[in-house]
Design goal:
The complex is a heterodimer. Chain A is α/β, with parallel strands linked by helices. Chain A has 10 helices and 14 strands. Chain A is globular, with a radius of gyration of 19 Å. Chain B is of the alpha+beta class. Chain B has 13 helices and 18 strands. Chain B is elongated and about 80 Å long. Classes of the chains: A alpha/beta, B alpha+beta.
Chain lengths: 292, 390
Amino acid sequence: MSILVNKNSKVIVQGFTGKEGTFHAEQCIAYGTNIVGGVTPGKGGITHLERPVFNTVTDAVAATGADVSLIFVPPVFGADAIMEAAEAGIKIIVCITEGIPVKDMIYAKKYVDLSGVTLIGPNCPGIITAEETKIGIMPGFVFKKGKVGLISKSGTLTYEAANQIVKNGMGISTAIGIGGDPIIGTGYIKLLQLFEADADTEAITIIGEIGGDLEMQAAEYIKGNIRKPVVAFIAGQTAPPGKRMGHAGAIIAGSKGTAQEKINALLAAGVTVAKSPAAIGITMAKLLKSQI
Amino acid sequence: MNIHEYQAKKLLHSYGVTVTEGIAAFSTQEAVTAAKALGGENWVIKAQVHAGGRGKAGGVKFAANLEEVKNISQKMLGMTLVTHQTGAQGKLVRRLYVQIPIDIEKEYYLGIVLDRKSEMPVIMASTEGGMEIEQVAETAPEKIIKVGIDPVIGLRSFHLQKLSFGLGLTKIQSKSFQEIVARLFNAYLQSDASLIEINPLVLQSDDTFIALDAKINFDDNALFRHPDILEMRDIDEEDPGELEAANYGLSYIKLSGDVGCMVNGAGLAMSTMDIIKQTGGEPANFLDVGGAASADTVARGFEIILRDPNVKVIFVNIFGGIVRCDRIANGILEAAERIHVKVPVIVRLDGTNAAAAAEILRNANISSIHSAHDLEKGARLAVAAAKGEK
């Protein structure tokens, strides 16, 4: 067990023959991911990395039975690629593409939700079920198999956290980078729910950042629904305020999105918060030890 | 990306939004010419900088005749405007907007912004115009009416009704108000704006509304399809260091401390600043060299960090994933030599080939480059070096 994806997941790559798509598809294949083909419009019929290339996702699904898609297309086509995958019957879409316009994502997200499809990202490192399947761009070797589920807004900080967890004698069941864009496919709550129900996950680590209020929602959800131990870290405790998003966005969200506010909410929900980014692994190790 | 008030008004006018009449001026002479061209007896001169709160800071002045237009413009051009949004260093005024004054019956607030929670644009309106909306949100949140616009149905009559009834407008006032909201919303969608604010939106004695100020932020990711908007970019308003970094694909923000930071990934970069502060130091900057750090990006990063005279040490914190640490280590040595880095450099490399990287740094045996095997140790060494400790 694990969540969302495992060694049986059949994966296609959209933007398969491009530079990024080719490089990371090769890395995924080397990790053991079952990549069954790819899509590049206009290149249907050729073979790439010993796998078939299709013009459309519909063709790829019909021929391979793929249920997961990994997207590497340029940002201009990002939202379209997501909607095409949803329309073709893909169940889990992982979008790595960075820089998709917000307006495009508003529509793509709406369509994905209406189709009952799970979208991870965009602008994220992807998802990995340790030692089974890597559907993304993370360095696979960091994620040794274990019982900790990891959900993170960040890229390299996810690797840092996984590395610390492993160095402290534990391991990862599934790790998901959810991305930090204003509109993302899947937030913390749905993944927390899946980890809570997953027999192979004993504890959960969540990595958040300043801005937005997803961590506040997560804290609220954890309070009433998660019984497994949770460790959290929030990046940007010392970041100067108001650098990226205008304050008007924060007003709407009903909160300012500061690290302290998020930390307080998580603490109030019974989550163990690592104050230092160097203490994520040790905090989890201590918490698990204290529960035996 | 941000634009100036005069540019925002021009853009909104092209969508049919009623805005004040005015002309931009880059010199005193141009300001006088603008006033003459606009006609009338008196004018308002407004400093054009990318920051709010200009009125209180002396960036908005009334001119009763052409002589005053000249004098005020002369003073305003070249002055440094310090508002609550500029920081202590303020912003240099290089452009003016000469405007015909309007009669003000009442001031309202009107804004459109993306709500991340409901994942749709939200129109906000308030009777408390002319003051900071953040302040209204804090002291009298019930005075802000918010209406989310679901992309599936778009802007509908009932949305507009909710806003006008919420503001307590009369039937005749509503007609003008709703027209402006509909056109503003169209401008928001068509131009890929991330924020539009009209503050104040002025009700005039004839019961019509007019935009007295205008602020627009655009979604940087969508600028590729708006060459006309991109042309309005004013790089004088941007930080030169941040701008240069952006040209090399680096994300740099200057801060006030003395520990220079170079990190791959925004989350790890923020965490690095956090741990420096927790260790008793002050970060000099935020610098994200991106997921795929190379010798070249490292060298550029060093250059940009060292332009800040406060920097006493550089802390390199890179988690090598797809990028191999041994390559980064070589890049650091190459960059340190190429640009003659004189401050100590603390290097923490972890991930792919981290052991080989440590070996490379050790063998290079450069006294100013120190290797740290984990994040905590690296931060401690960097903070100690900044304080002149060994």
